[in-house]
């Protein structure tokens, strides 16, 4: 299915651009460290619990169809980041961190395949020692979800993915 393949490419691109790190000192605004990829789960909010459950299953299915290799991302104190997919060459870009938002910019090869996006912004939060990045996927797959749930699409207030990263020792 072409839409599934497009979503897969866009998701891989978003993940490659978005995997980042942050140290525990949020007051300094520093976002420095090396992190390893972890879990990816859907984040769906809806006023209708049945729609939330169904859409979550659909998005999880799309995530599961992607065979994303493990990777690390290293955010340097000079604003540069290095993304390394398992078995691949390191790719370099830059990042900016402000408040709870992290923006990654670069000429990553997977972004070129997904339409040439040059930057992505993620919401950030922490869960213990892990960094959780949340990316809005409504622009990427909203039309697919709307076609599957046309009568209930307006009840969906959030359609995102949460990506958990763990620190590399």
Mean pLDDT: 79
Query: How many helical stretches?
Result: 4
Write down the overall geometry: elongated
- The helix content, as a percent range, equals 25-40%
Q: Give the strand tally.
A: 8
Radius of gyration using CA atoms only:
16 Å
How do the strands line up in the largest sheet? 1-2-3-4-5-6-7-8
Write the H/E string, N to C. Answer: HEHEEEEHEEHE
Major sheet summary line: 8 strands, antiparallel, barrel
Task: Pick out the low-confidence regions.
Answer: 1-29
Task: Kindly name the structural category.
Answer: alpha+beta
Distance between the termini: 40 Å
Strand content: 35-45%
Notes on the protein architecture:
With 169 residues, the protein is an alpha+beta fold. Helices cover 30% and strands 40% of the residues. The protein is built from four helices and eight strands. The chain has helices at residues 2-18, 49-65, 109-113, 138-148; strands spanning 33-46, 71-75, 80-85, 91-98, 101-106, 119-127, 130-136, 156-167. Strand 6 and strand 7 (130-136) form a beta hairpin. The longest helix has 17 residues, at 2-18. The radius of gyration is 16 Å and the shape is elongated. 31% of the residues are buried. Mean pLDDT is 79; it is low at 1-29.
Q: Which keywords apply here?
A:
single chain; 169 residues; alpha+beta; 4 helices; 40% strand; disordered N terminus
């Amino acid at each position: 299915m072409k839409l599934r393949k497009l979503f897969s490419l866009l998701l891989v691109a978003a993940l490659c651009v978005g995997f980042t790190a942050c140290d525990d000192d949020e007051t300094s605004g520093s976002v420095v460290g090396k992190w390893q990829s972890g879990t990816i789960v859907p984040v769906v909010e809806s006023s209708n619990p049945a729609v939330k459950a169904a859409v979550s299953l659909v998005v999880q299915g799309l995530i599961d169809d992607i065979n994303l290799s493990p990777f690390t991302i290293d955010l340097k104190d000079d604003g540069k980041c290095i993304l390394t997919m398992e078995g691949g060459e390191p790719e370099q870009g830059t990042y900016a961190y402000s408040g709870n938002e992290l923006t990654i910019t670069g000429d990553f090869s997977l972004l070129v395949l997904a339409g040439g996006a040059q930057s992505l912004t993620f919401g950030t939060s922490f869960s213990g020692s892990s960094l959780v990045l949340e990316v809005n996927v409504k622009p990427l797959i909203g039309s697919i979800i709307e076609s599957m749930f046309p009568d209930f699409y307006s009840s969906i207030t959030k359609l995102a993915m949460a990506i958990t990263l763990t620190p590399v020792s």
